[in-house]
């Protein structure tokens, strides 16, 4: 009997998980993307794009498509989707595996300013004009238009709507991962004074944090929103795979 798995994705972790599951017999995997990225990376298996219509819509999908395991591998800042995943899994009586990578922690040399959210981060930039590096997602840039005294370097996978860009912004379209040395060169080339970042965790975008530390630049670090799950989240792809194998009734390899 085939075990049907639905992965709520859009992250590098979700892609790695789908790649590992694709080669396993007895599993049928579908990755669901919200559709916010115009050029998503190619994924193995089946892919669906678009929302479900809230928790009720997701629960209905789980039942209608006979989903056996739901995996929430969305971005740590996608709190709404994660909340819907918990509610839908409970309504449909489907086990939920939540994959949430640990957040970054301060280390010696970091100059972090803690921000409660994006609007708070913008207010922490200070009164002196600065060159600010933003790599927080194209949908989060708009609050910075109220702080036009600064010059912004905006990096995004997809273009940011012109009316949501601060005046005079420099836009860089690129996709990670980004290493520390490349980020240092970028910051030095553009004369960056301060970095604004979400505390996403993981290694793919940590380069900017390490580069800021090396250059002694302050980082306005946006805290994660409250995140709920059913049980303790898996902290990496390997831990998520172990739980999926157990739920699917697959043998656990020695050492796992």
UniProtKB/TrEMBL annotation:
Keywords: Cobalamin biosynthesis, Oxidoreductase
Top-level lineage group: Bacteria
One GO MF term: precorrin-6A reductase activity
Pathway field: Cofactor biosynthesis; adenosylcobalamin biosynthesis
UniProt entry tagged with the keyword Oxidoreductase: yes
InterPro entries attached to this UniProt entry: Precorrin-6x_reduct (IPR003723)
GO annotation, biological process: cobalamin biosynthetic process
PANTHER family in UniProt: COBALT-PRECORRIN-6A REDUCTASE (PTHR36925)
Protein name, per record: Precorrin-6A reductase
């Amino acid at each position: 009997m085939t075990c049907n798995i639905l992965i709520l994705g859009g992250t590098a972790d979700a892609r790695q998980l789908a790649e590992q599951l694709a080669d396993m017999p007895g599993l049928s995997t579908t990755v669901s993307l919200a559709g916010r990225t115009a050029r998503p990376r190619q994924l193995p298996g089946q892919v669906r794009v678009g929302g479900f219509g809230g928790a009720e819509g997701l629960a209905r999908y789980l039942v209608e498509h006979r989903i056996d395991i739901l995996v929430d591998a969305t971005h740590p800042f996608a709190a709404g989707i994660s909340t819907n995943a918990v509610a839908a899994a409970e309504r449909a009586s489907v086990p939920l595996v939540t994959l949430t990578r640990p957040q970054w922690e301060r280390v010696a040399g970091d100059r972090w300013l803690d921000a409660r959210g994006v609007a708070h981060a913008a207010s922490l930039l200070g009164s002196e004009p600065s060159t600010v590096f933003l790599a927080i997602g194209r949908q989060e840039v708009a609050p910075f238009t109220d702080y036009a005294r600064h010059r912004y370097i905006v990096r995004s996978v997809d273009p940011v709507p012109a009316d949501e860009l601060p005046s005079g912004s420099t836009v860089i379209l690129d996709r990670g991962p980004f290493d520390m040395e490349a980020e240092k060169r970028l910051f030095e080339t553009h004369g960056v004074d301060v970095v604004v970042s979400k505390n996403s965790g993981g290694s793919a975008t940590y380069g900017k944090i390490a580069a800021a530390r090396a250059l002694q630049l302050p980082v306005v670090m946006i805290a994660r929103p409250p995140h709920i799950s059913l049980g303790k989240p898996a902290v990496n792809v390997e831990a998520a795979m172990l739980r999926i194998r157990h739920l699917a009734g697959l043998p656990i390899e020695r050492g796992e």
